[in-house]
Amino acid sequence: xxxxxxxxxxxxxxxxxxxxxxxxxxxxxxxxxxxxxxxxxxxxxxxxxxxxxxxxxxxxxxxxxxxxxxxxxxxxxxxxxxxxxxxxxxxxxxxxxxxxxxxxxxxxxxxxxxxxxxxxxxxxxxxxxxxxxxxxxxxxxxxxxxxxxxxxxxxxxxxxxxxxxxxxxxxxxxxxxxxxxxxxxxxxxxxxxxxxxxxxxxxxxxxxxxxxxxxxxxxxxxxxxxxxxxxxxxxxxxxxxxxxxxxxxxxxxxxxxxxxxxxxxxxxxxxxxxxxxxxxxxxxxxxx
Length: 288
Hints:
It is a single chain. This protein is mainly α and 288 residues long. Helix content is 69%, strand content 0%. The chain has 15 helices and no strands. The protein has helices at residues 17-46, 50-55, 68-75, 81-111, 117-126, 132-145, 152-156, 164-175, 179-187, 192-200, 205-220, 224-229, 238-248, 253-273, 275-285. Helix 4 packs across helix 8. The longest helix is centred in the middle third of the chain and has 31 residues, at 81-111. The radius of gyration is 26 Å and the shape is globular. The model has no long low-confidence stretch (mean pLDDT 84).
């Protein structure tokens, strides 16, 4: 560029702080409406009668508010108590198994020295890249051949012995615990079991709580495996029961939304009780 050519000066467009704050809040409010809108619509529909839902716009408030859908859900031909009880049992067993076995495996990979430790860990971690649908048929065949199809153990056994994600998460945290602390415990006569459950585990309450929340949410919402491995109502979980409602009561969407509201309620309670842990886990693990 020669001196004769005009120079174009670019002016940076900046917003004042009040305008930037208003824009930020507008974006946050819009995001909140998009996120919470479906839940609010589901709850509103659950409180409507089928007649009002069919004759009025979906965004209209319930008038009058009715709990008949919930009474039908729990007291009608389709009992919804059993799926909730089965799901709670499955989540409880899987949670205990995941925590116990994942903690033990992560401690072994982080603090114990044995031949092939790192190779074994990375091979195990590589299974995270395998889609779940790939192992469904072999896993289903195993359950059928062992006579566990349509049983409680078929729902929990594939998930209760830890997971690559859980082991990786805990291993990375355990590696941050100073070896000097563990060596001092060994000098005092503590073995690996005592070190794990009396020193390492108590120092890892935050990460263990995060893993527990992730496990509860993921297995409460688990759908594909329970749908494949169970038939009938005996071991039906809440997600499968809700899906069956959509086909059994195809036109009664107020009953379906009542079921989805019931399915969401325990997770909302979980968030209300452990909201600080959940928020901290987002920055810790990137969990969404």
